[in-house]
Design a protein that fits this description.
This protein is mainly β. The chain contains no helices and 23 strands. It has a 21-stranded antiparallel beta sheet that branches. Strands 2-3 form a two-stranded antiparallel sheet.
Length: about 200
């Protein structure tokens, strides 16, 4: 199949630089697909993945075979569009997605590999688009959605993954069109604007 792989062993374990290449390309020639160091059978340092044009698209740091450090994803132009910190294979801290211009598309914090606090997505203008609140990876708290003008279209509340409290929907001008009340995911009351 034309794939080239380079690896060294020590005591029957992968140890040293590992490289694998795409099948030879008629324009680009030999293009690396992946590169990583092994230490006694485990990834150690950066695991780098490249596209067929030779541009790095993934950078994942490892320590003793576990993700440890900030993992990055790149677009075809080499711009970062995703970053997420890991501590011994678990997401820990703020994870971001980016627009091509570098503006933040979304942000959320992880604690022990679970979402914690507010997850917010943004329009490219920087105005918020959606907000969801989490506790230990479960949606819990306020949730909202806005349009590109910054007008709120929706607001609701969750308790431990279940709708609880007011859920309100608005039109593009911010006028209330639906108002609902939930108790532990059961609809208790509903009002809808009549034309």
């Amino acid at each position: 199949n034309g794939i080239k792989t380079y690896i060294t062993y020590q005591d029957n374990l992968r140890h040293g630089l590992f490289k694998e290449y795409y099948p030879p390309h008629e324009i680009y020639g030999d293009v690396k697909y992946v590169e990583v160091m092994y230490q006694r059978g485990f990834f150690e340092g950066e695991l780098a993945i490249f596209n067929q044009a030779g541009i790095k698209i993934d950078s994942i740091p490892y320590s003793q075979g576990k993700k440890h450090g900030t993992a990055l994803k790149f677009d075809a132009e080499g711009r970062i569009f995703f970053s997420s910190p890991f501590v011994m294979d678990q997401r820990e801290g703020w994870t971001y997605e980016y627009y091509p211009n570098g503006a933040i598309l979304s942000e959320v914090c992880y604690c022990n590999d679970k979402k914690e606090g507010e997850e917010i997505s943004y329009f490219e203008s920087g105005l918020p688009h959606t907000l969801n609140t989490y506790h230990q990876g479960v949606i819990d708290g306020r949730c909202c959605e806005w349009n590109a003008k910054g007008i709120k279209l929706f607001e609701g509340h969750y308790v431990q993954g279940k709708r609880h409290g007011h859920f309100d929907k608005y039109d593009d001008e911010g006028n209330s069109v639906v108002a609902q009340t939930y108790e532990k995911d059961h609809l208790i009351e509903k009002w809808k604007k009549t034309p």
